[in-house]
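User: I would dearly like some help making sense of a protein record. I have put the entry right below:
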Amino acid sequence: MLGNSTTAWGTGAKLLHWLGALLILGLLIHGLIMTNLPREMRFENYSWHAAIGYDVVALTLFRMLWRWLNVTPAEPRGLSAWHRRLAAVSHGALYVLMLAVALAGWALAGTLRRPLDAKLFGAVSIPVLPLQGNRTLHELLEETHEFLAYLLAIFVIGHIAAALYHHIVKKNDILRRMSFGRS
């Protein structure tokens, strides 16, 4: 089933979730590696990193639209009110951080001395913001992008820990509902 039901996430939601998760994990790891590369290797990596970041923004916006247009499966029985609130806040924070990290990166790309050749899904050129050569803004945006990326990583770890907690300790179907295969 492509769309969601009141009891399960559909294939569309699962694909968007796991594709986004893989891309974000790849970007977080690549960001750590990229900053330690020799200077002559960084620019090409910045372009690749930015292109995947643009893809994540597009997929995140599409995922938000998908979620808005589809029903959301009911939460498992027995969840306390604070569990439901925490889940809602943390999911909202994940969406905000996914977009904020990428937008800070996009602004940062505009401060580089030469423009990046980063394309959305390898096809559509994304113009950089006209901030070229502004070193003060570059440093601020670089620190902001890095801080937000670390914050996103913390929320991702918390998201994974919560899914495992529900699966192992609470023994409910939260993790299974977002997995492919048999429930």
